[in-house]
Design a protein that fits this description.
Number of helices: 7
Structural class: alpha+beta
Order of helices and strands: HHEEEEEEHEEHHHH
Strand content: 15-25%
Number of strands: 8
Largest sheet: 5 strands, mixed, barrel
Length: 295
């Protein structure tokens, strides 16, 4: 009976001690949560939030800016249009319908949708001053070399596009006005031809504007995204300090240092503290019973 009552009393004491420790831990955790933030903590929090929003926003903006502005600018520079315009004359215009016939268009509003009605505008031009020669010559179109003009190139039929992609969005691109101005046979106007493809011409070309588009719509958002990501890594990942600490330790102790660092974070959990409390209670019960503490 004495042994049973002693065990019962010991169990009651253990439960009371465990409950007391749990209440103390819960109160300490609640107090730490309810503590007001300091000015440094507020600045740290809002700085992290701002940098994260800037990084996500600039990265998302690249998804839209690259196909709309950067890709046309790069394609225009690769086409190598002449900076000085030449005189172009509209040869003919074709108004077609059907998805099969409209694989391309001189001008269309919107660059992502399928085209079922399109306009094909063909022009003729000469690479040097003196007007347009060979308009309609041969009827089949193509590139011809003029005789007696020092190898001047005469194009009897070239495709005229509103820009390198042949598409755009209002108000920058208005296809109705473009067709009325350049789609009338016999109309003359300045144009820029491609030195990489003589059968390709555009109405307007500004090389500086293409570089400006690449800088504004790609280089700046990309740099902002990279810089803010690096700042967030330095603020929260502690990359430099961890790397320096690993290099300072000898080789056999690097792995053990990583384990102790992980264990240090787990010490803050309530479950781990309760397990250690159980061990302390068992040690205390052994001491009360007169047993040795070591196994």
């Amino acid at each position: 009976m004495r042994s049973a009552s002693s065990e019962l009393l010991l169990d009651t004491k253990q439960q009371q001690l465990r409950k007391k420790k749990l209440l103390e831990l819960a109160a300490a955790k609640k107090q730490s949560r309810g503590a007001p933030r300091t000015l440094r903590e507020k600045v740290w929090f809002y700085s992290t939030l701002s940098f994260a929003m800037i990084a996500v926003g600039s990265g998302s903006a690249l998804l839209f800016l690259v196909p709309l502005y950067v890709d046309p600018a790069v394609s225009t520079l690769l086409a190598d249009f002449v900076p000085e315009p030449v005189q172009c004359t509209t040869v003919r215009r074709e108004q077609l319908a059907g998805l099969y016939n409209c694989t391309w268009s001189s001008c269309r509003e919107g660059c992502t949708s399928d085209v079922y009605n399109c306009s094909h505008i063909y022009v003729a031009y000469r690479t040097s001053a003196g007007g347009v020669s060979g308009v309609g010559g041969g009827g089949s179109g193509g590139v011809q070399v003029a005789s007696g003009r020092g190898g001047d190139v005469i194009v009897t039929e070239a495709v005229l596009l509103v820009n390198i992609k042949g598409c755009g969005y209002p108000p920058a691109v208005a296809c109705s006005n473009f067709t009325k101005a350049y789609g009338v046979p016999g109309a003359t106007f300045p144009c820029h031809y491609s030195r990489q493809n003589y059968t390709l011409a555009v109405v307007g070309y500004d090389k500086r504007q293409q570089y400006a588009d690449i800088v504004h719509y790609f280089a700046v958002p990309f740099a902002v995204c990279v810089v803010t990501s690096i700042v967030l890594c330095v603020m929260h990942c502690d990359c430099q300090q961890s790397a320096a600490g690993q290099q300072a330790l000898p080789e056999p102790y690097r792995s053990s240092a990583g384990h102790s660092h992980t264990e240090g974070y787990s010490d803050h959990s309530i479950s781990t503290r309760v397990e250690r409390l159980d061990e302390a209670i068992m040690e205390a019960s052994r001491a009360l019973q007169g047993e040795p503490s070591g196994l």
